[in-house]
Q: What sequence folds into this?
């Protein structure tokens, strides 16, 4: 008799271990911090729509019996302690009220059938008849009573709607705050791990003490609530007639979920480079690593400057056909880049050198796959030959384009304007400058690039009527870089757009993202 149950127990245990293990591996493989950053950037520009979408999602999830703990944690992660608590409190109370009304007036028969399967419902119903809203309050404090199903069950009882809503709102707050706090602390830990935000040991101690105190209070209160409920409605009682008939089905579902999780994890391990590209580029901590000195050498980029002047027009369109015929000069310049004394260059010379190297390598990449002009987009190039191909010799090292950008430029120069100077050969990119970057003129050139980019409707637009700022996806992908320097994405845009600056002074405009056009920045596409 007990052997099948023992086998089922072993299957469930192994399945849970597999699920937890896969979750840990996937958390390390998947760029969770970038996903959260992208979501935060969207929320920043969505205005009131962001919180409304969250509350609507929470309400729908609760009505569909989806556990709200994950969304509550996410609220603390995204909105912080105060606003996270406010939003979840509103959404969870609205869900409790909606389910109550559905059970009482719209779907009573279905909920009655569901309630009859619960050995606890009759006891709760009798207790509410005698204790009213006090029993509802105790139920909200007790983790034994399921939130989603409980909302529907309570609609069948004699509880008064107004008192039910008030008791639900007030007595769900302790548990809500605990989950919000957990989500907030997790968010702070992830930000610290990614290096974007740091906290002192004292601040971490205060967060830890606050979390511990909150947990102690909630656990103590829930124990008191459970004891009080046991005297009114013995929730732990299970009728002898109840059998674990559904346990085999639940075990099978858990086992299938574990198998799928293992399969997904295996694919993720195989495609780990693709996993890293989810949600855009990696986060980076912008810092200044290099300094200038009177003895620093300079790198002569005159040959690249001449190529750009001949094959790139004032609007950044490239004559790839003409450049293809002139490729010997580009190759000669790349040979000079490979042999350059990078370590002896000053700060501005290093950055100008890296910007030129990145753009020159990108041009060479396009020519390598030009195929008589048939190439339509850099995205048509196989992914392993594109940004992750470690083939470019630069200053005595060999890097990929991604390594140049994400390892050599972003984390070593506190300069978000590089995103308006690095060009990936797409129409959606900022225009390619038709001159080489030079150390002595770098500040002027970068500022000019940023100003010109923000005046182009392909990258920035402001609709005063709807109070919407339309932005290039670059601002979504690299939002953290701009936030480190300017505070917010819109604050950085406002440096170059007086209309956006004025809008920020009078309110908070919403952001909408301009679809990124990956079509080649070939002169033939300029019309």
A:
């Amino acid at each position: 008799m007990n052997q099948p149950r023992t086998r089922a127990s072993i299957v469930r245990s192994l399945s849970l271990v597999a699920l937890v293990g896969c979750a840990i591996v996937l958390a390390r493989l998947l760029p969770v911090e970038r996903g959260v950053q992208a979501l935060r950037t969207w929320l920043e520009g969505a205005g009131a729509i962001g919180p409304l979408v969250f509350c609507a999602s929470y309400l729908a999830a609760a009505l569909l019996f989806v556990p709200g703990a994950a969304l509550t944690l996410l609220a603390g992660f995204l909105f912080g302690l105060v606003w996270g608590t406010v939003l979840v409190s509103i959404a969870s109370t609205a869900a409790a009220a909606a389910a109550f009304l559905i059970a009482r007036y719209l779907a009573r028969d279905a909920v009655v059938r569901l309630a009859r399967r619960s050995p606890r419902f009759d006891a709760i119903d009798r207790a509410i008849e005698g204790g009213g809203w006090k029993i509802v309050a105790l139920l909200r404090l007790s983790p034994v009573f399921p939130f989603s199903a409980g909302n529907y069950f309570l609609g069948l009882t004699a509880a008064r709607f107004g008192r039910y809503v008030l008791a639900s709102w007030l007595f769900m707050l302790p548990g809500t705050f605990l989950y919000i706090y957990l989500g907030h602390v997790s968010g702070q830990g992830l930000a610290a791990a990614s290096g974007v935000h740091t906290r002192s040991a004292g601040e971490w101690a205060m967060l830890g003490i606050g979390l511990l105190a909150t947990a102690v209070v909630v656990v103590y209160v829930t124990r008191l609530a459970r004891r009080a409920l046991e005297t009114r409605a013995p929730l732990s009682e299970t009728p002898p007639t109840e059998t674990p008939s559904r346990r085999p089905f639940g075990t099978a579902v858990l086992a299938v979920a574990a198998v799928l999780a293992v399969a997904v994890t295996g694919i993720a391990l195989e495609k780990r480079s693709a996993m890293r590209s989810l949600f855009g580029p990696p986060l980076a901590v912008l810092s200044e690593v290099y300094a200038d000195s009177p003895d620093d050498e300079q790198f002569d980029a005159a040959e690249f400057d001449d190529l750009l002047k001949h094959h790139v027009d004032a609007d950044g369109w490239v004559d790839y056909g003409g450049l293809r015929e002139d490729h010997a000069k580009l190759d000669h310049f790349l040979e000079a880049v490979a042999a350059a004394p990078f370590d002896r260059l000053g700060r501005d010379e290093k950055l100008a050198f890296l910007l030129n190297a990145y753009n020159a390598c990108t041009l060479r990449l396009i020519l390598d796959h030009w195929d008589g002009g048939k190439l339509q987009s850099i995205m048509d190039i196989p992914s392993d030959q594109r940004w992750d191909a470690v083939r470019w010799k630069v200053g005595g090292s060999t890097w990929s384009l991604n390594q140049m950008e994400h390892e050599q430029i972003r984390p070593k120069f506190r300069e978000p304007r590089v995103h308006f100077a690095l060009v990936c050969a797409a129409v959606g990119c900022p225009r390619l400058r038709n001159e080489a970057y030079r150390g002595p003129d770098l500040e002027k050139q970068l500022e000019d690039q940023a100003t010109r980019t923000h005046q182009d409707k392909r990258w920035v637009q402001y609709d005063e009527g709807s109070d919407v700022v339309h932005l290039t996806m670059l601002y979504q992908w690299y939002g953290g870089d701009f936030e480190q320097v300017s505070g917010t994405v819109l604050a950085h845009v406002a440096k170059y757009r007086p209309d956006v600056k004025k809008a920020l002074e009078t309110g908070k405009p919403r952001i909408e993202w301009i679809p990124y056009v990956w079509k080649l920045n070939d002169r033939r596409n300029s019309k």
Summary: Residues 69-106 form the longest helix (38 residues). The CA atoms of residues 101 and 107 lie 9 Å apart.
